[in-house]
Amino acid sequence: MGNFDLLKVKGISRRDFMKVIAATTAALGLPELIVPQVANAAEQALKKPPVIWLEGMDCTGCTESAISTLNPSPAELILDMLSIRYHETIMAGSGYTSEEAYHEALKEKFVLVVEGSSPGTKEQDRFCMIGGRPFREILIESAQKAQVILAIGSCASEGAGIPGACASGAVGVAELLRNEGIDKPVINLPCCPVKPTTLIGTILYYLTYQKAPELDSQNRPVAFYGSLLHDNCPRRGHFENGNYLTDWNDPLQKEYCLILKGCKGPKTYTDCAQVWWNDNANFCINAGSPCSGCSEKEFYNGFSPLYSKQEMFKLPGIGQVDADTVGTVIGGAAAIGLGAHLIATAASGRLSNKDHKEDM
Ligand code: SF4
Q1: Protein residues whose CB sits closer than 6 Å to any atom of ligand 1
Q2: Which residue has its alpha carbon closest to ligand 1 atom 5?
Q3: What is the mean pLDDT of each run of 10 residues along the chain (360 residues)?
């Protein structure tokens, strides 16, 4: 059966298939010219690299996120293509049958997707056991044999997300492997949960080029984590004008900047403002919630409490300010007659990536 015949059986037309490929290619910032190449890689994938998808200490939110997109489901498209051999939540088999599937997949060249964090030490193994075995051991075993490792969601990435804030000694995949002396690169795809476009885009890139996309200092693909949320926020105009929400119940403040309510947008690198969740239905800030910085390794502990203002941040030309005085500082800078260019830069708060990296 040809690859597109297979898509037809799954109720996916070639047009829909190409639409997903083109959108994903654009999201990765790749030239339109290579759409056929990406499509070809995806078609080849139908033949198909097996995936082992492990779930450690997690809430299954990343799985939900990946499988809950609308039709034609990119998740179904890509995940079916990838032949998920083992996934505790969605696989039909259970018990010994699923264990057998896992061990069979281990013998092949497989992609390892890890959702959730792992206990960091043998002593903490009791916090996460799968089929009677410590999750930590299963993760080490599969990571050593994997062709490529994707740590998806905040819990599996650096910082270990919400479990990392608990007493379970949870660590992300890369940290566990480092601690065990295992030298295997891990691509981190944080966010709580992972965005399907990020997961699919990274897998497609890997299938096309047989290597990881360009990564930043936290091993996140620059294509998805290269821009500062604050720079693309729909409430940015209010930030610049000093309109900060202080009262949730005041309808006049509904669209105001959320920095006094703990927004971590000025410290968070993510494409959330450009690529919304649930098939572009919405994203946190647009829905009225401050950004909790879930794509950063400081999430959760380093950014909590989430709904309290961040202590300090840096404005170029002005330096460190705290959220309480940001409006005064920006207004004051104008009043004392800073040059027009400096005011524009400072008041806009357009912090360069470099400034922010130094700041964090
Ligand atoms: Fe948007 Fe948050 Fe920046 Fe305000 S602080 S402009 S809400 S990202």
Answers
A1: 229-230, 233, 235-236, 239, 257-259, 263, 265-266, 285, 291
A2: 259
A3: 47 67 70 74 66 94 79 57 81 86 92 95 93 96 96 92 83 96 96 89 84 94 95 94 92 94 92 87 94 93 82 58 60 40 38 37
